[in-house]
Write a sequence for this structure.
């Protein structure tokens, strides 16, 4: 059955993950969608295992070839770690042993691999942290590569792309993305993907507009179909009319002009026009991300995720391994601070030798600081490593998902005990290291004045806070429309936290997605945030907006917004005001 004819100006909406506008014709990448399944006889088992192992070897060879090519391209060199991650997945015991076990039970290699991937994917999907949850795309990319090798399918489409193409695919692996020729590819769109997937990160580094999460776009588009993608708003226009084409061409030229202007902001201070400074820091998890963060003007790390050190391994990282990882980043970022978040995950997701039962509701179960306080020995090892790293540069310790005073007091008591141990052993550390907490639960908001007495700083994790406050799982398509960062309840919660921090004279920052949205800058100024931490690629845009506004205007806007009754009213008012104040930035398109 053929595809339905696509009408003029057919609009699709997904997630814009790499800003810019791409205009061209669709190049549809075909990927293996069906996995062959059959039973094998006992005498076939060893040959089937050998076939699987040969596929692992071939996949490793392919990835090393891509890695060698990437190493010759300066703008991609910093992302080689992604290919290293894929190579590590190929060596992962959970992947290889589970697949071979299923083969020994009489299942062919393709089906055994498929079943294993499904089991591992469930583990990822239960992770609450969005950034880490989207790492399942790396697992899928490796799985697809292995399946294509097992099926004897060769991908040549990437090499056959013609000029001014918009690549459309069910999903693009990071290795695929790295091989896109920017001279030919003017944008890409995928059915799958999220804002923090490696493919999205690479698209931003390459400067290629991208829209992901379109769900079924590849079932609609055809090769050579004219289309427009807006990687800023997440809109895709199929078969654009002449009028629509002219409109987007105008937006494209305006965007490209402002993009060139962005580079002039990188070395300027992040301060308002009435001289209020706001520290713009980066969220990251790997040493290889540091150069790009510094290039984009980050003054420190506002959120260093430590979970990756615990993944894809049979036992937790030792103290020395963690110390080495932390101290390298601290030295690279010096003299600016690095805020290290302690393990923010459930042990059943990351640490195989810690046995936990499956939980019906992992988002509200044994995770983050709750897990660390249950596994105190593991917690102490991490605290020792972080404290040791504080001797080589400015370090701040941050505890995730604190819901009450008792939890932070217990954390601080354990931290004091670890400090005493290090003193007795003669190991250097900063005795004045600052300690803070993430505000991401409604209970933490309600007792913010009490929590402020116990810590040196607050960091608001808006991603979780919004979901918990509004009781909305934004991953659930049936209720995702209720996920409103500008809901009146959220604004009031943010104000309550900031007021508590100011009254206690401690710093307050934001490290969720709200911090990276240029449209919200005036609201965040009104809240009096000292620091905004975000994906480093967003820093120049936020800085550009920040330097064109005043703190006084932010106070006035917040006062008005708190009188409005719905998220829609608030967002409409903000958009209108930002267009009025900065028409050159928000006039014809949203940054």
């Amino acid at each position: 059955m053929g595809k339905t004819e696509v009408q003029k100006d057919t609009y699709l909406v997904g997630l814009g993950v790499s800003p810019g506008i791409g205009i061209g014709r669709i190049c549809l990448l075909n990927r293996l969608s069906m996995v062959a399944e059959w039973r094998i006889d006992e005498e076939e088992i060893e040959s089937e295992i050998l076939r699987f192992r040969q596929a692992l070897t071939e996949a490793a060879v392919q990835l090393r070839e891509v890695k060698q090519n990437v190493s010759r391209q300066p703008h991609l060199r910093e992302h080689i770690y992604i290919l290293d991650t894929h190579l590590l997945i190929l060596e992962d015991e959970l992947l290889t042993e589970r697949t071979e076990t299923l083969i020994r039970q009489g299942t062919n290699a393709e089906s055994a691999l498929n079943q294993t991937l499904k089991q591992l994917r469930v583990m990822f999907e239960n992770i609450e942290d969005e950034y880490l949850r989207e790492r399942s795309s790396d697992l899928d990319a490796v799985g697809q590569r292995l399946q294509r090798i097992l099926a004897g399918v060769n991908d040549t489409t990437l090499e056959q792309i013609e000029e001014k193409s918009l690549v459309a695919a069910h999903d693009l692996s990071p290795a695929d993305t790295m091989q896109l020729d920017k001279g030919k590819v003017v944008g890409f769109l995928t059915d799958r993907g999220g804002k923090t997937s490696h493919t999205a990160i690479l698209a931003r580094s390459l400067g290629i507009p991208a829209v992901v999460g379109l769900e079924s776009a590849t079932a609609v588009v055809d090769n050579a179909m004219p289309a427009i993608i807006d990687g800023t708003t997440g809109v895709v226009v199929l078969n654009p009319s002449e009028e629509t084409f002219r409109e987007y061409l105008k937006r494209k030229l305006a965007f490209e002009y402002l993009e060139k202007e962005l580079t002039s902001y990188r070395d300027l201070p992040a301060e308002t026009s009435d001289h209020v400074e706001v520290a713009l820091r980066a969220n990251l998890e790997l040493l290889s991300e540091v150069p790009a963060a510094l290039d984009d003007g980050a003054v420190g790390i506002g959120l260093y995720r430590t979970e990756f050190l615990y993944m894809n391994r049979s036992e937790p990282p030792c103290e020395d391994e963690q110390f080495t990882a932390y101290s390298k980043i601290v030295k690279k970022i010096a003299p600016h601070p690095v805020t290290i978040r302690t393990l923010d995950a459930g042990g059943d997701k990351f640490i195989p030798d810690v046995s936990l039962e499956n939980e019906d509701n992992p988002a509200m179960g044994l995770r983050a600081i709750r897990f660390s306080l249950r596994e105190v020995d593991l917690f102490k090892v991490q605290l020792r490593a972080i404290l040791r790293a504080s001797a080589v540069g400015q370090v701040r310790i941050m505890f995730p998902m604190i819901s009450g005073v008792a939890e932070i007091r217990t954390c601080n008591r354990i931290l004091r005990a670890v400090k005493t141990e290090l003193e007795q052993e003669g190991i250097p550390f900063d005795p004045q290291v600052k300690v803070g907490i993430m505000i991401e639960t409604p209970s933490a908001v309600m007792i913010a004045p009490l929590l402020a007495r116990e810590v040196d700083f607050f960091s608001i994790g808006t991603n979780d806070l919004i979901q918990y406050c509004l009781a909305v799982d934004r991953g659930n398509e049936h209720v995702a429309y209720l996920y409103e960062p500008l809901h009146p309840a959220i604004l009031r919660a943010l104000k309550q936290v900031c007021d508590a921090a100011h009254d206690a004279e401690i710093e307050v920052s934001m490290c969720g997605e709200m911090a990276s949205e240029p449209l919200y800058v005036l609201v965040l100024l009104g809240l009096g945030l000292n620091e905004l931490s975000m994906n480093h690629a967003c820093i120049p845009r936020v800085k550009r907006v920040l330097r064109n506004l005043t703190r006084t205007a932010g106070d006035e806007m917040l006062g008005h917004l708190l009188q409005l009754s719905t998220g829609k009213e608030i967002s409409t008012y903000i958009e209108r005001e930002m267009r009025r104040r900065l028409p050159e930035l928000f006039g014809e398109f949203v940054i």
